[in-house]
Design brief:
The complex is a heterodimer. Chain A is mainly alpha-helical. Chain A is 71% helix and 0% strand. The longest helix of chain A is centred in the middle third of the chain and has 26 residues, at 52-77. In chain B, helix 2 (13-28) runs antiparallel to helix 3 (38-56), helix 14 packs antiparallel against helix 19 and helix 14 crosses helix 20 (470-478). The chains are: A mainly alpha, B mainly alpha. At the A-B interface, helix 6 of A face helix 2, helix 5, helix 6, helix 7 and helix 9 of B.
Chain lengths: 170, 484
């Protein structure tokens, strides 16, 4: 049990520290690298929660593919230096106030939780395993799965249509 | 399971046909030279006709598929037919317009077909996950179509605005879905109803979820206060896209609202009805009053479309009363048909008068149309009268049906607001008619067979169907929502 706690708190420190680092770093590359560290820590949380599929998807998709794309875009655009001052000065105090309200509310909800939550279905031992996810993806969620594929195709066509340079054959 | 699967595939066959046709069209379009994109347009229309034939061949059956993900009932079929007909009208309006404004591309028609398949799916979706996916499938092609006239600044602005606000609205819908899942333990409407009947739901969470879903879908159908994007997007997008968007997105959004609220949420009607009441009232008042100040015909029609969303939402207000809810559905569907026909008649005339660089869109450009082009002016007059709700038009029958539903539900105040704002709307609709007939001018009109055909078929339909409204009302009344 103790080892679990050590792992959990170790990861929590890494996750929160990298999150703060992401927000505070003035260089976009450092911010992106912080975000990768954060994603990895969260992925290990998923592993602890016995959700290996989500953990690996988190690393492969977010920490891998998406972040590499981010880094490429940052470097290609030469946007490493972030603008120092934001034009909306009232935003920061407002964000702090709203953030505090959110934290207080969350704590209050946890302290006096009231009302029944919907009956939670007992999960089986293989819940969240790649095999179980694959099976439900191709049985219960077959239609959503297929619709997403059409959706992504439409989005891809759209992106190409909007960005392709017009070769006017006038 | 395999047998089940075939039945499910059979249930959504029309959508499969349409989506596969769109994918094939994308490939075929590569071999069609740029000057002959008329072929792509015709092929897209053929795809819509085939889909329509598939639906018509199996009317009257009611079938759920994929374990309750979709429900193909009369309601869904009614909407699918409306949407396919709207798609045909949109293609008829598009081809010549796109060609002369120099923005014609084969992908336009492919994206249009994808969007229509999303809208049809929205009418069938009986699981909140499907509602979300269908909403995205219909929206993403619309975002792109709104911006297809790049590098025209207005069009880019329309696309970006629509995309950002639309993504934001989708977030509300997903959040609402999550809360409903938390409240009931399921996203399937049938299962949510079971949990509610067993009394195992969390009412607060369900109420919050219902509210957020109303926000998300309210954005799509452009009801106040979620209407801010409408005038800019309707004005900036190419007119043929706007004409389709006004009908398609509204029909699909209301389809989902009707199915979710009437079936799953009567339990929160005590709290939701006042919300719907005020949103509908606000939308009717704001849409109609702001429209008065408009000088650009596209903006005028945008505010008019906001106002009409308010009228349709009015029908939803008494959704919780089980003896009225069937009329709610029927009158909303009927009004959607009336709105679609009227809308296409009006936009066909607008597109006929629009010229390059967005000229010909001011109300003053319509001066003298009555003398120069009596037929087009007549079509526009019919459309304006129908929008206002004057007797020999479908708009009148539709509004009558709506007001009757609202009064049956006991909301006489709301019906009164509806009638009064209709009177206000007469001012700006009839002003268009007055300008066309009473003022001198030399309007420049584009002659195109398909444009004229759309204008005449729609406006004749508006008048003829109002005189023989019986069958259409009967159809709308039979378009009942099925739960299982």
């Amino acid at each position: 049990m103790l080892i679990d706690w050590i792992i959990f708190f170790g990861l929590a420190v890494v996750a929160i520290a990298s999150g703060i680092g992401l927000l505070l770093s003035k260089n976009a590359i450092y911010a992106a690298l912080n975000l990768i560290a954060n994603f990895t820590a969260v992925a290990i949380f998923y592993l602890i929660l016995a959700a290996p599929f989500i953990a690996l998807a988190q690393i492969a998709v977010y920490a891998g593919a998406i972040m590499v794309l981010f880094l490429f875009v940052i470097m290609l655009l030469g946007a490493e230096r972030l603008g120092g001052t934001s034009t909306l000065r009232w935003q920061r105090p407002l964000a702090i106030v709203l953030g505090l309200i959110l934290i207080v509310e969350t704590v209050l909800v946890f302290i006096n939780r009231s009302g029944a939550i919907a009956p939670i279905v007992e999960v089986t031992a293989d819940f969240g395993s790649p095999a179980a996810i694959g099976e439900s993806l191709f049985s219960t969620y077959l239609l959503p799965f297929e619709v997403i594929s059409v959706l992504l195709l439409a989005a891809m066509i759209g992106a190409i249509v909007l960005t392709r340079r017009r070769d006017q054959k006038a | 399971m395999p047998n089940d699967l075939w039945l499910s595939i059979g249930a959504i066959l029309p959508i499969i046909v349409l989506a596969v046709w769109a994918c094939l069209l994308l490939l075929v379009d590569l071999f069609i030279p740029a000057q002959r994109k008329g072929w792509t347009a015709s092929l897209a229309a053929v795809g819509l006709l085939i889909t329509l034939a598939v639906i018509l061949s199996r009317l009257g059956q009611s079938q759920s598929g994929f374990g309750g993900m979709v429900m193909v009932d009369n309601f869904a079929n009614f909407l699918s037919i409306l949407l396919l007909a709207s798609g045909l009208a949109a293609i008829a309006l598009s081809h010549d317009y796109l060609q002369r404004t120099g923005i014609e591309r084969g992908e336009y028609y492919v994206l249009l077909l994808f969007s229509i398949s999303g809208m049809m799916l929205m009418g069938m979706a009986s699981d909140l996950i499907m509602v979300f996916l269908a909403l995205e499938l219909l929206s993403i092609p619309l975002y792109v179509l709104a911006g297809i006239a790049v590098p025209r600044l207005n069009s880019e602005e329309a696309a970006i605005k629509y995309f950002l606000l639309g993504a934001f609205a989708s977030g509300f819908l997903v959040y609402g879905t999550a809360l409903v899942y938390g409240a009931s333990g399921s996203t399937s409407i049938a299962k949510i109803v079971q949990v509610i009947q067993a009394g195992q739901h969390n009412l607060t969470l369900l109420l919050a979820g219902a509210g957020l879903i109303l926000v998300g879908l309210g954005f799509k159908v452009a009801v106040a206060p979620f209407h801010m994007w409408t005038p800019d997007v309707y004005q900036g997008a190419p007119s043929s896209v706007t004409a389709f968007m006004a009908v398609g997105a509204k029909a699909a959004g209301f389809a989902a609202l009707l199915r979710i609220f009437v079936l799953a949420f009567p339990v929160v009607s005590l709290d939701m009805t006042p919300v719907l009441w005020s949103v509908a009232a606000l939308t009717m008042i704001l849409g109609n009053f702001v429209a008065i100040a408009q000088k650009n015909i596209k903006r005028l029609l945008a505010y008019s479309s906001i106002a009409h969303a308010g009228y349709i939402l009015m029908a939803l207000t008494p959704y919780g009363q089980s003896n009225v809810s069937a009329d709610s559905v029927a009158s909303a569907l009927f009004y959607l048909v009336a709105y679609a026909l009227t809308n296409f008649a009006a936009w066909a005339v607008v597109i006929a008068l629009e010229q390059a660089d967005e000229r010909g869109l001011e109300l003053s450009d319509y001066a003298g149309l009555g003398r120069k082009q009596p037929a087009l002016a007549a079509a526009m007059t019919v459309a304006m009268l129908s929008f206002t709700g004057v007797p020999p038009t479908l708009g009148f029958v539709g509004k009558f049906f709506l007001f009757r539903t609202v009064i049956e539900g006991g909301f006489i105040g709301l019906a009164l607001i509806g009638v009064l704002t209709s009177l206000v709307s007469a001012y700006y609709y009839l002003r268009v008619v007055v300008i066309m007939y009473m003022q001198e001018g030399e309007p420049v009109v584009r002659r195109d067979g398909w444009l004229y055909a759309t204008a005449f078929v729609s406006s004749i339909g508006v008048v003829a169907l109002s005189i023989f409204a019986g069958p259409l009302i009967a159809l709308a009344s039979r378009a009942i929502l099925n739960l299982f």
